[in-house]
Amino acid sequence: MILKDDIKIAVVGLGYVGLPLAVEFGKKYSVLGFDVNSKRIEELKNGKDITLEVEDKELNDTKFLRFTSNVDELSSCNIYIVTVPTPIDENKFPDLKFLESASEMIGKVLKNQDIVIYESTVYPGCTEEVCVPILEKLSKLSCIFEDNIKNSSSGFFVGYSPERINPGDKLHRITSIKKLLLVQLVKLLNLLIVSIVALLKQAHTRLQVSR
Fold it and tell me: What pTM did the predictor assign?
């Protein structure tokens, strides 16, 4: 399991959900903000957020945050937070192409004991049925659950924390909204409590071990 002092976070997807999260984490932890849109990355490197979710001063003052569109740089991280969009298609079904693409990119760099947390809005079961198989196939590692941890000498962990951000809402920010976090085993929950949850000061966070 990753130690608190060794945490290196990648936030994959830097829209109205991912950027505020990356900025908040970047005040304390080493954070890599990743987006496939190279124009978006250049804007952020220049200290400008065109979504206006983060003030320029806060963006420029975030000490441990850097930005990239280079997939290879993701390999330096050990916690991956996926915040890509999940729109609906013309038939009003979930379009998972961005989620699947993000899972493929992470799967190629995923290492033993790494953690992947999905924040993208998805239907029940999507993380385990769609995302985990992609991660397992490309990383050649197994996802560790509470019921198989004794038989797993290596593998990665997965959690889900649905995003609850309203674009443009300056009152209900990432550090003050209620937050739900689901993970597969207790010791992973303990790590996230002392690191991520504590950092965000979320007094109303609901924590749950799934499966």
Answer: 0.85
